[in-house]
């Protein structure tokens, strides 16, 4: 069992090194020009290690997002935070990873970002808000997710120029007041 734990720790460390290196390289050059050799050199891992876990540099990016959904650890208890705190953490993560999200908002990744955000929002960070708002159908949840997605992408594509506090405040109001007009 000890070797399994070591292997799991080694796996997590290698994957984090690769993602950190990918983030560094994204800031320096176009994503499509990043090679596996360059990535492994910056990460300090071997090509064999890379290919043990991934086939492409895109796989590194997508794996990281699955592991750390929108900046929140996958095992985080979202109910421990207020609606405002959830939105605040979300926007701070976006701002701290501007290059990453600019890449994800590009034509190449936009569909993957939309699908990813829908999965994360419905089964994660905004689940308590969705539950509290009482969405009744998958279309209502899709409308909610689409609203958050569009606001996010517009902000990213606009260069994230609006002040962070303004985005957090406005988005919290928008997200927590979204209503389909049902009478209870």
Mean pLDDT value: 82
> How large is the radius of gyration?
18 Å
Main structural class? mainly alpha
Tally of helical runs: 10
- Beginning-to-end CA distance, first to last residue: 54 Å
Number of domain modules: 2
Helix content: 55-70%
Summarize the helix and strand pattern as letters.
Answer: HHHHHHHHHH
Outline the low-pLDDT stretches: none
Let me know the number of strands.
0
Sheet having the most strands: none
Strand residue percentage? under 5%
Shape: elongated
Detailed description of the structure:
The chain is mainly alpha-helical and 184 residues long. The protein has two domains: 1-56, Homeodomain-like (Arc Repressor Mutant, subunit A); 68-184, no CATH class. It is 70% helix and 0% strand. The chain has ten helices and no strands. Helix 1 (2-28) packs across helix 2, helix 1 (2-28) packs across helix 4 and helix 5 packs across helix 10. It is elongated, with a radius of gyration of 18 Å. The protein starts with a helix and ends in a 7-residue tail after the last helix. The relative contact order is 0.10.
């Amino acid at each position: 069992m000890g070797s399994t734990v070591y292997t799991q720790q080694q796996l997590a460390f290698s994957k984090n090194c690769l993602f950190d290196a990918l983030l560094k390289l994204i800031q320096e050059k176009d994503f499509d020009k990043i090679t596996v050799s360059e990535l492994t050199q910056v990460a300090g891992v071997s090509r064999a290690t890379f290919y043990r876990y991934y086939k492409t540099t895109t796989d590194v990016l997508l794996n990281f997002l699955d592991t750390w959904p929108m900046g929140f650890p996958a095992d985080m208890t979202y109910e421990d935070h207020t609606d405002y705190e959830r939105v605040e953490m979300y926007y701070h993560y976006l701002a701290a990873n501007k290059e990453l999200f600019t890449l994800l908002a590009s034509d190449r990744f936009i569909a993957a970002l939309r699908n990813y955000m829908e999965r994360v929002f419905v089964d994660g960070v905004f689940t308590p808000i969705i539950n509290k708002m009482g969405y009744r159908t998958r279309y209502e949840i899709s409308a909610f997710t689409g609203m958050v997605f569009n606001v996010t992408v517009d902000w990213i594509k606009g260069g994230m120029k609006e002040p962070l506090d303004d985005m957090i405040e406005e988005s919290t109001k928008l997200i927590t007041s979204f209503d389909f007009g049902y009478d209870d």
